[in-house]
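Hi W.,

Here's what went into the run:
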Amino acid sequence: MSIHARFFLDRGDFTLDVDLEIPGRGVTALFGRSGSGKTTVLRCLAGLERIREARLTFNGETWQDDTQWLPVHKRPLGYVFQEASLFPHLRVRDNLLYGFKRLAPEQRRLELDEVANLLGLADLLARYPDELSGGQRQRVSIGRALLTSPRLLLMDEPMASLDVTSKGEILPYLERLRDELSIPVVYVSHSIEEVARLADHMVLMENGRALAQGPLQTLLTRTDLPLAHSEQASAVIQGTVAAHHADDHLTELAFSGGRLLVSQQDRPIGAPLRVRILARDVSVALNRPDSSSVLNPIPVRITQISDDPHPGHVILNLVVGDYQLLARISARSRRQLDLSPGQSVWAMVKGVAVA
Amino acid sequence: MLGISDSDLTALWITLKLAVISTSILMVLSAPLAWWLAHTRWRGKVMIEALVAMPLVLPPTVMGFYLLVLLGPRGAVGGFLEDIGVGHLAFTFTGLVIGSMIYSLPFVVQPLQNAFAATGGRVLETAATLRASPLDRFLTVVLPLARRGILTAAVLSFAHTLGEFGMILMIGGNIPGQTQVASIAIYDHVEAMDYASAHALSLLLVVLAFLLLMSVYGLNRRFKVVGVA
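Here's what came out:
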């Protein structure tokens, strides 16, 4: 189960040359700046863009090669555009059912009611698109794509045109989709927060090329890639809710490397929880600190120390359980503590963002 | 009735019949042309656009004259039709329909082209990702969204045909009961100094035109008014 895509396009001022292996499950983020070719790749996957030198197979079926071409409307995919692009002449209900009606009954795996509940659309069905807020419109467009029971969901920065409030409104729905639907999602984004929150797998795009592709965790912490050196450099830890400490308004997360305290989360014990830890929020100490306000001291081992583009800083790769953390500390501290790879230290995690 | 003679009523009937038939055929034939003009990137498109707009600037008599020559018994089209036994088209109702269609062509193509141009792009791509075939997309997305342009085109063509004079006189002659339309009948009354009949028929046309337009626009309001995305 996977998608193999090879696209080549030379438009003079822009060259696209990618060879992608996208897993057949989970969320794959196409991440990069605007102009890096993310959207073009997505459009090629959908068949909205037809470039001549291309080869695309989906779970072994050929969608495009030198002799074959499957037109967009015959591909079992859902596509969510940056702007909701609802049909203005149809009510929400008819927008949602547009693709659904065009499926043979035996291909329908989702029903209107389910999708309306999943995305909180039940009260909006009789409205016209111009009577909806931006966030509502985008939810309808996601629902409309889902109702075609796609075997692949493509999303082109579905939150880029939304304000902060609407984004906050959509994100939980996207997380539910990720957790409850078993179809692969390819998600274009230029926001690392979004990617860290949603993606499992990542393709890093730059100037029409795939700079790297692999599991999110790995790419975030690879110091040979630009991500680990950005201001937003971070690592992601996936665990489950282990306990709630209501008095302190804290929730305890269990993961392969131990436990972490995060701000209180309204999720049941055992529920999956993903947190993001910024490199700049991690400092290190040689001994377990007994007198510190830091909530989360974690025993870790240094695996790598690399220079940062900022000459006063170094980046530490720290391993804990199956996970890596990044710590950005000053070069001076590194010298004074005499840190070196292989050494065991305590990571002092100042802030944990629930992703 | 109101001093309107039977021959006037016949002329009115022929006028309405002509407007309905030529508008209907013209709408169907213009749609693909307008679609193509709205979406082609071919550079020669301006030439076609200019040709389509020609009836706007040419005097109707000029077009009528050429059509008469073309469709008459010795014209290229008329002669051919004579040869195959159909008969030429000068001074016939069919000739009138053809003339009216050419005369109204820009009034139909231009609104359709504008409406189609505004309906391209994103909504069509969206429909394609929702499993709609090209024809399906045209019928369920383009046509509903272009509804105002379509209505405008039909109303303009219809109204234009009602008021046609010079071309019809040329190509149709003025045969009562066959090719005599209301506008020409009015002219005849005025020529004969029969102002009372001219008044009656004119007033009837005014009222008819007003009622027609009002009902069309009234109908349009009842639908959901949507901007073309």
